[in-house]
Amino acid sequence: MSSIFEEVDGYIANLFGDEDEALRKTMQAIKDEKIPQISVSPNQGKFLQLLAKLCNAKKILEIGTLGGYSTIWMARALPKDGKLISLELDPHHAEVAKRNISYAGLSEIVDIRLGKAIDTLPQLLKEKAGPFDMVFIDADKPPYTEYFEWSLKLSRPGTLIVADNVIRDGKVVLKESPDEMSAGAKRFNEALAANKDVTATIIQTVGTKEHDGMAIAIVK
Predict the structure, then answer these.
(1) Phi, psi at residue 79, to the nearest 5°?
(2) pTM for the whole structure
């Protein structure tokens, strides 16, 4: 079935895709610099951009920069005086992302913070960087629940919180999680479902990124 998923993904991208030179160059840089090729797909990037526009975002928080591909998609939804803060652990990833973001002409909008997100998030709260209008969580899965809890502290009523990779090829339905990534996603899903401060759901996704899902939550 994966071949038809990819074929349909390509069909959608050909109809609605806005992947320009800067985004293609970003994906090539990720490949050339040996950064894991786990960025969102072009269609998912466009979806995130639409979500940012739907919630009229002026301030976005991204947890997990990687090479800056999703960062560029979302930053392009912001007004000229908007701000996107992206948290990245790996110095090499951050440096490549900065170059990609600069090439896309978004250096004035995007602020990449280097360090462990679990340490940076309390700092953002301390400096009153929020509340954010949108939060995108796409980093290491074991602390997803903690990232979500900190995201809530940096939110306001109406803030949109999106978390990627929460289905893990369906591994989250297994009684015993086969790996720490699936276990982290499953723990997050259960915490999200139990949280009374948000209205949330999970949408399964298929395509070039195989079978996965995005959690979408709105703070009450």
Answers:
(1) -70, 170
(2) 0.96
